[in-house]
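In this section we walk through a basic example: taking a raw amino acid sequence and producing a predicted 3D structure, encoded as discrete structure tokens. The instruction is simple. Fold the sequence below.
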Amino acid sequence: MSVFSKVMTPQDGVAWVTGASGGIGRATALALAADGWTVHATARTAEALEELAAEAKGPGRIEALPGDVTDADAMRDAVDQITATRPLALVILNAGVYTPMRAQNFDPAVAKKTFDVNLTGVANGLGPVMAHMIERGTGHIALTASVAGYRGLPDAAVYSASKAGLIAMAEALAMDLVDLGVRISVINPGFVETEATAVNEFEMPMLMQPDEAAAHIVSGLKKPGFEIRFPWQFALVLRLIGLLPNRAYIWAVRKALGWDKLDR
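The resulting token sequence is shown next.
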């Protein structure tokens, strides 16, 4: 059986979700707990995690595990703490930030913060998780990227770059993990209504709620394949538009999102 068909269950160990205090991460942690998983939920705010744990409905549960994904030592300690009692079977490295940025107000400091969380933050968790799963010869890791990582999108130069990096990272690691018994997936959502996307100045097509996104993620983790993408219609459109030559692509995306009509 291909490693891409591997489906982990609560009987195989516990789950870990980063970026769990809000948005997709929070909804996914709740959905996994409802599906029977013991979920270790990580974010910087302990109070938000305690509220999340109290909200969880069985048969699983949520354990608060505060931590900052940009702190490599903290992420290594988190993995050690989780695996001291039970193995990690499923990990969703979800923490991410989004700050709209146009060429006119490009800020290297904001770019660095985005990369520190979205790319380096994922790598900080990925290192100890892979070591643990490779040693055991089993496990499933999912990285939350975005359809914005397919190609550049308006107002998302830094965000698109960080998510494209995650997609490439997952693809490259899959080349090795396929022989080591560890499945890696990439999660590519479209627009999801969260505090982050609330700042967008354009109409977001096929906008989803976090619980809808979580349902797609939990369902996708149980199916074979490498990519979990939703809504599939929007992802497919972006994939097809992405095949256009650069000039045609830039024109088509600006037109589709109404970016050519915005007050600049």
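Looking at the output, two observations stand out. Strands lie at 14-18, 38-42, 61-64, 88-93, 140-144, 183-189, 227-230. Residues 3-261 form a domain with the Rossmann fold fold (CATH 3.40.50.720). In the next section we compare this with other chains.
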